[in-house]
Amino acid sequence: MDKRGSSILSQSLWKEALSIFPGGVNSPVRAAVKPYPFYVKEGKGAYVITEDNKKYIDFVLGYGPLILGHAYPYVKKNIFNQIDKGWLFGIPSKVEIELAKKISSHMNSIEKIRFVNSGTEATMNAIRLARGFTKREKILKFDGNYHGAHDYALVDAGSAAMEFGIPNSLGIPEQVLRTVNVCTYNDLTCVENILKKEDIAAIIVEPIMGNMGVIPPQKDFLSGLRELTKTYGSLLIFDEVITGFRVSISGAQGYYGIEPDITTLGKIIGGGFPIGAIGGKRQIMDFLTPSGKVFNAGTFNANPISMIAGLSTIEVIEKENVIHKTSQSAKEIADELDKIGTPHVVNRVENMLQIFFGVSSVKNAEDARKANKELYNKFQLKLLDVGIFFPPSQFETVFTSLAHDENVMQEAIEGIKKAKSEFN
């Protein structure tokens, strides 16, 4: 058995996985855990428990959706109640209306909504909708922003695409690449220069970058995008798949006071089940079929299990002061990380954070690429040794949940101190 408590069982599962899955996994970042992934058999509160009975404090949380922690009792109870009634209909159910109304009650920019099955589907359809509405073909995105795994988004993308050195995937037609313009995040000059020259259907942006580590917008960046898109007749799409119901109950748009034309959501609004959503003003959203001619459909759209899990999660967020509590936990982590002796910077927005080694500031994707990824990977393994699971990629985000209570945080801080002492 190695230091992380992995045994022949994990090695055996990994060997078997390599023989049946490309690269051994079903999403690339899962292969970033070295020398092989641990296999989870159970999640409880702030912890994951592996097949080898190793227990980790989980700061990955399904890469963001589990803001209440694993298997939150109220959410679980409502999911089981729904399962008793059935879990797929292909016809409307009341709970989809309830979740839609709950979301729009907190996000003023969303008058109508369409549920889909992933963040990738949400951004793909948002871009199609923007093109259909504006009758323009080109879009503008930002270097290192990750908007899912479809062709138009995989141009200078962040997240696992960057981790494995493929910001531009093979298999994307050159004609597609020519419709996507790219600027540096936090650079309004580049944006205006492109809008002056090109008819841009939409600018799509992560209001807080969460797939190059955590990179917040600089002052006036988001408001500048809002003004520029209005001036040049383009739509503004906020990709809030990560930030929706995380940095505030009204998302990053509420946090920064900027209303986009279209919002994409995912992760938290599904309570840990597959989910995506596109929302916006009714005159834009009504371009979607069947009221309009921008096509979208899906057998699993508005699946009742995802709907009830998301609705239940938001109800808890409303009642339990979740965002404040999770942000306080994240601040404790960030403060402790900031005491590490190795040169570094910690970026944090509420309950999202990441540490970058060897740099003094990270304001865009290029800054993040200059960080010492090898040192981050070394520190991540030190944390695993003391029972703490941070993202295995420099370009992902550390999240906290409601389950990271005082007792868990005391254990986590002691673990981080120990990892730091061995790391420095």
UniProtKB/TrEMBL annotation:
Catalysed reaction, written as an equation: (S)-4-amino-5-oxopentanoate = 5-aminolevulinate
Cofactor: pyridoxal 5'-phosphate
One Gene Ontology molecular-function label: transaminase activity
Gene behind the chain: hemL
Pathway of action: Porphyrin-containing compound metabolism; protoporphyrin-IX biosynthesis; 5-aminolevulinate from L-glutamyl-tRNA(Glu): step 2/2
Protein name: Glutamate-1-semialdehyde 2,1-aminomutase
Cross-referenced CDD domains: OAT_like
InterPro entries (UniProt xref): 4pyrrol_synth_GluAld_NH2Trfase, Aminotrans_3, Aminotrans_3_PPA_site, PyrdxlP-dep_Trfase, PyrdxlP-dep_Trfase_major, PyrdxlP-dep_Trfase_small
HAMAP family: HemL_aminotrans_3
